[in-house]
Amino acid sequence: MKLACTRCKRKKIKCGRDDPRCHQCIAAKVECQYVERRPRPRGVGKQKNAIEHLQQRLELLEKHTSSTSDEDTSSVSMTEPRPGTSRSSIPPPWSETASGIDDGQESWVYRLASATRRHFQTQATPAETPIQTPRSDQARERIDQARERIDSSLLSLNEALDDLGSLRVHTEALNVVLDLSPTEARGYINSFGNLKDAMAVPGVFAFSTIDVEFLRALPEMVDSPHVIVKPGTRVMYYNALYYGLLEELGPGNSLTTKAYMKVLESVPAWLEDADMTDLDGNTAALTAWTAINNHDYQLSWKFHCKSISYIRARGIDQLDVTPTRSFEEETNRVAYRYLYWHVLSIDMMFQLFFGKPAMMRWSPNNVRPPDLCHDIDVSAAKVTTTIVWIRITRLATQTLNIVGNTPKDNIEILALEVDKLCLQLEGIMTEWKLEKLMDDEDIPNDYRCLIIDTIMTIYAIIIGMQRLVQKTRPGARTLHAARRIVTLIIEFYSNPTLTNRSRTVCTHFMTFFPFCAIFTLYEHIIACLEPEECDSDIQALENIGLAMAKISTQRPGFEPFAKTIDALNRVSRILLDERRLARTTDVVTQMDPNAIEGVDLPWVGFDAFQNLVATELPDFDPSTFPSLPDYSMDVEGDFYPSGFFRALENDFMR
Q1: N or C: which end of the chain has fewer CB within 10 A?
Q2: What are residue 76's DSSP bridge partners?
Q3: pLDDT digits over 438-468, tens only?
Q4: Quick one: where's region Disordered (predicted)?
Q5: pLDDT (0 to 100) of residue 426
Q6: How many CB atoms are located within 10 Å of the residue 211 CB?
Q7: CB of 56 within 8 A of CB of 170?
């Protein structure tokens, strides 16, 4: 069926849609032009199927809400799915045919924790082996006790990982009632307006198309049957309520959780809407960050791709190819540049930590960095955070482009590029005196939080980049970065000068940054042969675990993560204690310490770590290689069975 001709559509008159000319154009003696019906965008059906499981997320979150506040359970009722969000024959999340489903085993934290568990299982085994021979029954008894302790701790770790891996969404769709009066809703919208500059680099949302005054007018209209609210506007509205409630009531409050549920409930209709609005880019970028803070990593990736689609559809990735024609156009480009660079920085994060492919390629001739000169009242805080943010994003993105374009066998060249980047990032921190600014109690708390966020982002980039080229145990630079992140988090949550608002706003300090650093420390503990070198690391990890346990009492959804870290800490502590005990007992070590200085762990290097795939190597069966002699692998001297003679020496010395 044809659409109305362009003239009838413009004049808003009824078109007969006759072929080849409609009767209206014949009567007016003008040319009649028909516009072809636009083909359905490719991938719409797939996108619809991929997002159907958003409704499934609601039941899990509802359980967390009911466990937090029993009095609010009456406001949630099971109803039939709304039009446009009806149930379909989508396979359940655990089905092998379901793609893109966000469950616990797809989490990057689960993959890293599983890899660490395998490392512990291969190293934390104090059983009697060819390299340890107990001299007495007492030593053998201690080894048996150590084996029982480690087996018990590994069992607890397995249970914690099972809980983390079983975080799956369910198939029941719920309509959540967010019981807020219009006055209360406007108050939380105001809180969001005051908060948005502290959520990211000042300017990302300040110059965006997010109109807080318009959002304040929505409480009476959003559920009205007489007013049509665009799906994208509805998603932004509930996002604003979520962040306002997050600031005022905290992340564990039932209303905050319900606001996030309303965001997810509104998303399917938004993604199915073919009409793109100016608000969609910022809505997608903000919703991606909201999902990350709630551990919905696969959903955040979909929203991130939505923001990239907006950027490409609006030509923002080619924004500065042509010069501006007016001051008004230049002003509009300021907001687009901030959005582009924000999405570019998030894309870098997805590559380094979530194992996603690069979706954006920055070119200096296509999009310039945001210009600060348009604001004559710009503050020192904004100048510092914006310029540092732009520089580290540019440097990291350029290095990732080099990594992506360099053959994988040229690992030495890549290592030099990564080391160069790390030196530049450390130089930026020194040049802008970020460490001193972070400790300055005279500056506003919001500014201090942004500085701390910037510092931890730099260290996280260093860790992620070093992992791409890491062949052996973590290097000194990687360890320093991991220790600094852990120390900053502990100091942040114990700082008496910071308000509860600061800790509430910066929830990603505990839900994101720790997982960028702690697994590096676990790797160091496993590979380290001197327990004294790891004492401070295990103490810091235990402090992080205590902070996570405290937060999990307020946020039930965070409990599986906290339990996993607590179990890893207990295994680490037992491993260190047993290594320390082995040095004081009468256990004869029959191997040169230099031979195990570099412990053979399945380190994930450049080729594998980008996807964070925690695959287990098959067991090596020596019987399948009978032609290999039992020579020592120490090639510094002649191929003599030195271990055998050392064993004889030990027997003679008894």
Answers
A1: N
A2: 176
A3: 999 888 888 899 999 999 999 999 999 999 9
A4: 64-101
A5: 97
A6: 13
A7: yes
For residue 646, name the pLDDT band (cuts at 50, 70, 90): very low
568 has pLDDT over 90 = yes
Cα(521)–Cα(400) distance, integer angstroms? 24
Count, residues in the chain: 654
What are the domain boundaries of the chain? Answer: 1-37, 51-82+176-368
Amino acid at 378: V
User: Which phi and psi (to 5°) does residue 500 adopt?
Assistant: -65, -30
| Rounded CA separation 650/654 (Å) | 7
Alpha-carbon span 164 to 355, nearest angstrom? 19
Which residues are within 8 A (CB) of 494 and not within 5 positions of it... i.e. 6 or more apart? none
**pLDDT tens digits, one per residue of 230-239:** 999 999 999 9
Determine the Cα–Cα distance for residues 283 and 211; give it in Å rounded to an integer.
12
Of 6, 118, 92, which is closest to residue 523 (Cα–Cα)? 118
- 4: DSSP letter: P
Which residue reads 């793109």 in tokens? 276
The backbone torsions φ and ψ at residue 175, rounded to the nearest 5 degrees and listed phi first, read -100, 115
Cα-based torsion angle of the residue sequence 302, 307, 312, 313 in order, rounded to the nearest 10 degrees: 100
> 641 — phi, psi (to 5°)?
-75, 70
- Reading the block at residue 157, the tokens are 């770790």
Tokens encoding 456? 């931890």
Instruction: Please state whether beta strands 587-589 and 132-134 pair in parallel, antiparallel, or not at all (unpaired).
Output: antiparallel
What is the pLDDT, as a whole number, of residue 200? 72
C-beta of residue 560 within 8 angstroms of C-beta of residue 104:
yes
Asked if omega into 496 is within 30° of 0 (cis), the reply is no
